[in-house]
Amino acid sequence: MQQRKHQKGMSVMSWLLVLALAAFLASAAFKVIPHYLDFMALEKMVMAIESPQGQGITSPGDVYGHVGKGMQVNSIRDLDLEKAMAVEQEGNDFKIKFDYERREPLIKNIDLVVKFQKEFRVRAPQ
User: Fold this and answer.
1) What is the pLDDT of residues 93-126, one digit of tens each?
2) Which of 37, 42, 67, 77 is least surrounded, with the fewest CB atoms within 10 Å of its CB?
3) What is the pLDDT of residues 45-94, one digit of tens each?
């Protein structure tokens, strides 16, 4: 009586399924990662207010101008700064709040939504 050899490894169909899943995840990641990189750049711009680069920032308008220039340098063009960022002045401190979301189409009517909410309290150098 002959014994069957045990199958080792995955079949072609299972490999195709794994590759399709990997392609789907990579596609989603490539659509979302740029938004996270833009937000990290915005965080650096806000934190730069406390450094010597922030010299001369004395009002909320100056904060908007500083972040707006940083957005031009970093090629962040598709974000409305007036809607995405709120600035309040409390003495020498600034309370800066980011609250916005980004949508990327994934498949037909299915979108990936990334929401950014963070609050900073920075002090401009005197």
Assistant:
1) 999 999 999 999 998 899 999 999 999 999 877 7
2) 77
3) 999 998 887 788 889 999 999 999 999 999 999 999 999 999 999 888 99
Domain residues of the chain, as ranges? Answer: 31-123
From the list 92, 86, 76, the residue with the least C-alpha distance to 120 is: 86
Other Cβ atoms closer than 10 A to 27: 13
Within 13 A of 23's CA, how many CA atoms are on the CB side? Answer: 6
Edge-to-edge, what's the strand order for the sheet holding 93-107? 85-90, 93-107, 110-123
Cα gap 120→51, rounded to integer Å = 15
Q: Is 20 exposed, middle or buried (0-12, 13-18, 19+ CB in 10 A)?
A: exposed
Q: Which residue in 114, 69, 63, 56 sits closest to 85, CA to CA? A: 63
Nearest to 114 by CA among 37, 48, 45, 24: 37
